[in-house]
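#lab-general

N.A. 3:47 PM
ok so I finally got the sequence cleaned up, no stray characters, all 123 residues accounted for. can someone with queue access submit it? mine expired

B.Y. 3:52 PM
send it over

N.A. 3:53 PM
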Amino acid sequence: QVQLIESGGGLVQAGGSLRLSCAASGRTFSSRAMGWFRQAPGNEREFVAAINWSGGSTHVADSVKGRFTISRDSAKNTIYLQMGSLKPEDTAVYYCAVGWTIATLVQHENDYWGKGTQVTVSS
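B.Y. 4:20 PM
back already:
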C-alpha cells in the first residue's frame, strides 16, 4: 500500500521558517516527479513546488518563488519543502503528491496524495 506521510507543519510567526518532509512508503518513486500543493480554507488546492525524478530540475509557483525551496533524497524516498520568510497568506494544509513529470504535477495530474500537514503563520 502506497503512503505519503507529510510532517513538519506547525505554527510559526510571520517571517519565520519551517521545513516540511514527505516520506513515501510502499514503493519507490525514484523515477517519478514529486511535489507540494496547499489548500487554504475556502480556496482551491494550488500548486506550490515540484521536483523531477533526479532532483536536477525544480519548479515553484510565483507566489513562493525566492522563499520556498524543494529538494529530494531519493535514497530515503523523501522530499522536502524549505519555507522561509513565511507570510500569513501561506497558511494552509500542505499536501505531498506524486506525478510522472513536473508538468503533470503543475496540471494537478497526480497519482498519489498525502493527507496533508497544517501550516499556520501568525501575523
